[in-house]
From TrEMBL:
One of its GO terms (biological process) is signal transduction. This is Inositol-1-monophosphatase. It comes from Amphilophus citrinellus (Midas cichlid). GO terms for molecular function: fructose-1-phosphatase activity; glucose-1-phosphatase activity; glucose-6-phosphatase activity; glycerol-2-phosphatase activity; inositol monophosphate 1-phosphatase activity; inositol monophosphate 3-phosphatase activity; inositol monophosphate 4-phosphatase activity; metal ion binding. Homodimer. Belongs to the inositol monophosphatase superfamily. Its cofactor is Mg(2+). It holds the Pfam family Inositol_P. InterPro entries: IMPase (IPR033942), Inositol_monoP_metal-BS (IPR020583), Inositol_monoPase_Li-sen (IPR020552), Inositol_monophosphatase-like (IPR000760), Inositol_monophosphatase_CS (IPR020550). The keyword Magnesium applies. PROSITE patterns: IMP_1, IMP_2. It is an enzyme of class 3 (hydrolase). It catalyses: 1D-myo-inositol 5-phosphate + H2O = myo-inositol + phosphate; scyllo-inositol 1-phosphate + H2O = scyllo-inositol + phosphate; 1D-myo-inositol 2-phosphate + H2O = myo-inositol + phosphate; beta-D-fructose 1-phosphate + H2O = D-fructose + phosphate. Keywords: Cytoplasm, Hydrolase, Lithium, Magnesium, Metal-binding.
């Protein structure tokens, strides 16, 4: 099997050279957005420069409590997505226009469009503001009463999205995630034939902290009608406008 990292890095360098119009003798210039660097005060702005978006551990709470699912995510701004589930030793990869894979095997979303037969993944998030928690529970109640076949949550946004890409669950939605949680897996979902949508419909905005990833437009649109939408501070807001979620204690962030 070809090494996905080797071809990814070759292509990444080619993109960076093109963006910077550099010759092969000039070092390429990448930008980075990472959960920890943003927490340390770095900007979280996407520009035209090729940018790696990184979440070293997605599923920190699982990690701290030695729960099952922990992933690392890496995305080169809509060109590549890599999610590694270290406990299962599963490497999910996607390259724009070239499909999505798990350990080299092609991924395909579920063909189930009847929401009553669907498994929907979501999370409770880390914000403990009672008004936010009420909205999350209202959405959960509405989704359960659609009715759906079941609701699950892996504890990792990236893993929930890879489950959509793998056809194990029909949809995932969450409000409160960050760009580094979902960027890589977004490409994996769309390359596996899935759709991404904002929780109020329309195109997803990866900085908005809101996402639906589904196997089909039909299922995504049912969720749009069901979710109680709200808007957390955007990832690309000025640092003074960002608020720390109540369970995001810096000592626990990895
Ligand atoms: O564990 P992390 O990276 O904080 O991510 C959470 C959501 O923000 C789980 O997806
Ligand atoms: Mg993380
Ligand atoms: Mg994360």
């Amino acid at each position: 099997m070809a090494d996905p990292w080797e071809s990814t890095m070759d292509h990444a360098v080619a993109i960076a050279r093109k963006a910077g119009e550099t010759s092969s003798h000039v070092p390429v210039c990448f930008r980075f957005i990472g959960e920890e660097s943003v927490a340390a005060g770095e900007s979280c702005i996407l520009s035209d420069s090729p940018t790696w978006i990184i979440d070293p551990i997605d599923g920190t709470t699982n990690f701290v409590h030695t729960h099952l699912t922990v992933t690392s995510t890496l995305d080169l701004q809509v060109e590549f997505g890599v999610v590694y589930s270290c406990i299962e030793d599963k490497m999910f990869t996607a390259r724009r226009g070239r499909g999505a894979f798990c350990n080299g095997e092609p991924l395909q979303v579920s063909q189930q469009k009847a929401v009553e037969q669907a498994i929907v993944a979501t999370e409770f998030g880390s914000d403990r503001d009672p008004e936010v928690v009420d909205k999350i529970f209202q959405s959960l109640r509405n989704v359960l009463c659609l009715p759906v076949h079941g609701v699950r949550g892996a504890g990792s946004a990236a893993m929930n999205m890879c489950l959509v890409a793998s056809g194990c669950v029909e949809a995932y939605y969450e409000i409160g995630v960050h760009v580094w949680d979902v960027a890589a897996a977004s490409l994996i979902v769309s390359e596996a034939g899935g759709v991404l949508m904002d929780v109020e419909g329309g195109e997803v905005d990866l900085m908005s902290r809101r996402i639906i990833a589904a196997n089909s437009k039909t299922v995504a649109e049912r969720l749009v009608k069901t979710i109680v939408a709200f808007s957390p501070p955007r990832d690309d807001a000025a640092p003074s406008d960002r608020c720390e979620d109540s369970t995001h204690l810096s000592a626990r962030k990895v």
